[in-house]
Amino acid sequence: MRTTPVKALVREVLATLPKPYSEHVVDDVFFAIENTPEWLAVYDSICATLGKTVVNNWGGYWVANALGKVGEHRVPSRKSKLITSYSLLDTDAKTVMRKPKEAEALQLMSDYYQEHKSELPADIRKYRDAIVELIVEGMPPGEAFSAVRSPSK
Q1: If phi over 0 gives left and psi between -120 and 50 gives alpha, with beta otherwise, what is residue 138?
Q2: Confidence at residue 136, expressed as pLDDT on a 0 to 100 scale
Q3: To the nearest 10°, the Cα dihedral for 38, 32, 96, 129?
Q4: HEC string of 95-109?
Q5: β-sheet bridge partners, residue 92
Q6: Which of 60, 105, 109, 150 has the most Cβ atoms closer than 10 angstroms to its Cβ?
Q7: Residue 85: in which H helix or E strand, if any?
Q8: DSSP assignment of 50-73
């Protein structure tokens, strides 16, 4: 998957942060990246390939995924200058969502696409594998479609 380098960077940074993580852990991760030259070089390299919007969206997603958390409230970044806002990770994901199997994820993606295709960009099909992977990881279809094309977190 094309966001594997983002996932690897997030996991590496998370491993160095003090536990327990706060609900502001997404901001903490990006702050650590911008203040560690090696991580910032990796971040900049990934951004050159995927674009900052994709890297930041997926960075937030991979932090939440690694911790099994979700957040519904967005707040402005207080620490990091790499992101403008992020979701507070204040809810245990297991209490919110069930992860579908791949066949179900494909159906959920297809259903969402059929219902919203007039609103979606023409090139959305090139993100098919990424969307299915996100749905399999437990992200709702609408959020998965948005994650591959939305503005920076």
Answers
A1: left
A2: 87
A3: -20
A4: HCCCCCCHHHHHHHH
A5: 69
A6: 60
A7: strand 85-87
A8: H-HHHHHHHHHHHHHHHHTEE---
* CA-wise closest residue to 46 among 11, 9, 82: 9
pLDDT digits (tens, 9 = 90+) for 26-70: 999 999 999 999 999 999 999 999 999 889 999 998 999 898 887
CA 35 to CA 24: how far, in whole Å? 17
Q: What is the dihedral of CA 76, 78, 84, 85, to 10 degrees?
A: -40
Which regions in the chain score pLDDT beneath 70?
A: 1, 93-98, 150-153
Q: At what angle do helices 37-50 and 4-14 cross, to 10 degrees?
A: 160
Q: What is the DSSP letter of 79?
A: S
4-14 and 25-34 helices, crossing angle to 10°: 100
